[in-house]
Write a structure and sequence with these properties.
With 187 residues, the chain is mainly alpha-helical. The protein folds into two domains: 55 residues, no CATH class; 130 residues, no CATH class. It is 57% helix and 5% strand. Helix 1 crosses helix 3 and helix 4 packs across helix 5. The longest helix is centred in the middle third of the chain and has 20 residues. It is elongated, with a radius of gyration of 19 Å. Bound molecules: zinc ion (ZN). The site of zinc ion has 8 residues, from loops.
Length: 187
């Protein structure tokens, strides 16, 4: 084994450990590192104290278009794109850093005073989103009202695009009101 492949392996172990801590599924680790399935499964158990979950990855583009997931996904992807373009962190490293920043932002901004429950966008979904961008299934569309960049289906016309924050569905207001009512009843 050359020293180069030893350091590659060490880098991959660190990267995989970071991604496991953030909640990555085993399929993600296999795609992003050159470590074997057995090595990754062992690492997963060491880090999380449990076996990796089995089953398919959440493979749905439409999920990213629903109201709250769209806001969270757009926040994440804007951070990711900035890091990948303007900083030395590329690809999976940009993904890990962007996801950490997303968690900080979403806890501080989108759930003021709320419980740090499950993030809306899981690490595995964030990884899927980057893949959807790479394969051209989704695009960033510019909101005609706030000029923010939001995740949208590829080839959707941008001329009349209004984002999920500027035009929330009627249900969203009710959810917010319900949450507020819930908060005041449990306070
Ligand atoms: Zn907007």
């Amino acid at each position: 084994m050359t020293s180069k492949s030893v350091s590659r392996e060490a880098d991959d172990i660190l990267l995989a450990t970071d991604m496991i801590r953030l909640g990555a599924r085993l399929q993600v680790l296999q795609a992003e590192t050159s470590l074997s399935y057995d090595r990754l499964a062992r690492l997963y158990r060491e880090v999380r104290g449990a076996s990796p979950p089995k089953g398919m990855l959440p493979f749905s583009v439409d999920w990213f278009m629903t109201w709250l997931p769209n806001i969270h996904s757009s926040l994440f992807y804007n951070i990711y794109r900035y890091l990948d373009t303007f900083t030395p962190a590329k690809k999976s490293y940009a993904l890990v850093q962007a996801y950490r920043l997303y968690l900080e932002q979403s806890e501080a901004g989108l759930h003021p005073g709320g419980s740090p429950a499950e993030p809306v966008l899981s690490f595995t979904r964030a990884w899927m989103l980057v893949r959807f961008f790479e394969s051209g299934l989704v695009q960033l569309s510019c909101c005609q009202q706030c000029h923010g960049q939001f995740v949208a289906h590829a080839h959707d016309p941008e001329s009349a695009f209004v984002c999920a924050i500027c035009k929330p569905p009627p249900r969203a207001g009710k959810t917010r009101a319900r949450r507020k009512a819930h908060a005041s009843t449990t306070a």
